[in-house]
Amino acid sequence: MEATRRRQHLGAAGGPGAQLGASFLQARHGSVSADEAAHTAPFHLDLWFYFTLQNWVLDFGRPIAMIDSFELLYYYDEYLGHCMWYIPFFLILFMYFSGCFTASKAESLMPGPALLLVAPSGLYYWYLVTEGQIFILFIFTFFAMLALVLHQKRKRLFLDSNGLFLFSSFALTLLLVALWVAWLWNDPVLRKKYPGVIYVPEPWAFYTLHVSSRH
After folding, report:
1. Strands, DSSP E only, in the chain?
2. Is residue 25's pLDDT more than 80?
3. pTM over 0.85
4. For the chain, domain boundaries
5. CB-based contacts of 27, cutoff 8 Å, min separation 6
6. Where would one find the signal peptide in this protein (predicted)?
7. Span 130-153, mean pLDDT?
8. How large is the average pLDDT for residues 68-92?
9. Measured between alpha carbons, how far is 154 from 171 in angstroms, rounded to an integer?
């Protein structure tokens, strides 16, 4: 219990990234008794709000601000970034998700602020999956999360508010990607640009071909 308190104190003092790691460690190692297992971490509104806002600003604002002098940076982000950023990113999310379970079904609920954040969070992951062309990595992570939920359910463990938020965001992302692909399924220009088996057009490609070209 003393070690758990120290981890919680360090997580609270280290900012959003430390809170994420501390919550993971607490969920993985803190359930040493039946009483402790019945309690779940509260929904980290400040963490998820900052995380969602930061992702939108960095990932959506970056292409807008891109100019010719940053071509090398763009090359790095477009090609090397897939291996050095996306894979660790989804791996960390899954590791965090694996600790978001509680023994109390009554505590498996999302508060109101969490419900409000699901839409912008899911929309951001949709942009990340489509613009980053990482649908395979995303769908693999989502089904791994789903398999973990079903596995833990057999042990009578349920997602806490943070796990429900993350799982709901991914589920919304999958729905948005499906609607996006269905909408552009018969687009001849984009079909030619993305001839592969997995057809997931990039939003910026759609904007360039069908929106900006009209002005």
Report:
1. 101-102, 158-159
2. no
3. no
4. 48-211
5. 41, 98, 99, 100, 101
6. none
7. 94
8. 67
9. 21
